[in-house]
Amino acid sequence: MNYPEMMIVPMRQELTRLGVEELRTVDAVDDAVKRPGTTMVVVNSVCGCAARNARPAVAAALAHGIKPDHVTTVFAGQDLDATSRARGYFTGYAPSSPSIALLKDGQLVHMIERWQIEGRMASDIAGDLTTAFDKYCTQTANA
Questions:
Q1: Element housing 7 (H / E)
Q2: Catalytic residue annotation
Q3: Torsion on CA atoms 70, 76, 78, 80, rounded to nearest 10
Q4: Is the pLDDT of residue 143 over 50?
Q5: 39 domain-assigned
Q6: Which structural domain, as residue segments, surrounds residue 90?
Q7: For 12-46, how does the pLDDT look when each residue is reduced to its tens digit (9 = 90+)?
Q8: Residue 58 C-beta-side C-alpha neighbours within 13 Å
Q9: Quick one: which H or E segment has residue 30?
Q10: Beta-carbon neighbour count of residue 101 at 10 Å?
Q11: Which of 94, 125, 129 is nearest to 109 (CA)?
Q12: Cβ-contact 43, 78 below 8 angstroms
């Protein structure tokens, strides 16, 4: 299903205002994943039950002292080809939205699926993310 753009603008902006890079094409996804270092890919979504906590969790995690080199997003239900391509990098995981993947040098190293987001507080999800950042990332928030 392709949601009307007007409906999702506020959900997009909740991440882009943080400096999260939107990946709206297959080529943009491939280029982002090929960059050296760590890349977080947030599969944004309309789903109020889970996405309403995923986006604030991302915001809180990005305030952490260590963070990914690149922070990106695709929008499920809108940027269909880009989302499908991003999910292709999440080897071993079924399509899930929202979800948050962390890749290092193009390889998936950490995944948070919808079932790990749904019904949880944003602070708990952010804690999961910052634990992964501490393990796989080297960039400081002030860099």
A1: helix 5-16
A2: 47, 49
A3: 90
A4: no
A5: yes
A6: 5-135
A7: 999 999 999 999 999 999 999 999 999 999 999 98
A8: 32
A9: helix 26-34
A10: 24
A11: 129
A12: no
Residue 63 maps to which CATH number? 3.40.30.10
* Distance, CA of 10 to CA of 16 (rounded, Å): 10
Domains held by the chain: number: 1
Q: Which residues 6+ apart lie within 8 Å of 14 measured at CB? A: 55, 59
Written as one letter, the residue type at 15 is L
Residues sharing a CB contact under 8 Å with residue 130, sequence separation 6 or more, in sequence order: 61, 64, 66
DSSP string, 78-128: TSHHHHHHHHHTSTT----SSEEEEEETTEEEEEE-GGGTTTS-HHHHHHH
Say what the pLDDT of residue 1 is: 63
User: Is-contact 72 58, C-beta < 8 A?
Assistant: no
Q: Which residues lie closer than 8 Å to 63 by C-beta, 6 or more apart?
A: 141
In 18-29, which positions are buried (b, 16+ CB within 10 angstroms) versus exposed (e)? eebebbbebebb
pTM listed for this prediction: 0.93
In a domain, 142, yes or no: no
Q: For the packed helices 26-34 and 80-88, what is the interaxial angle rounded to 10 degrees?
A: 30
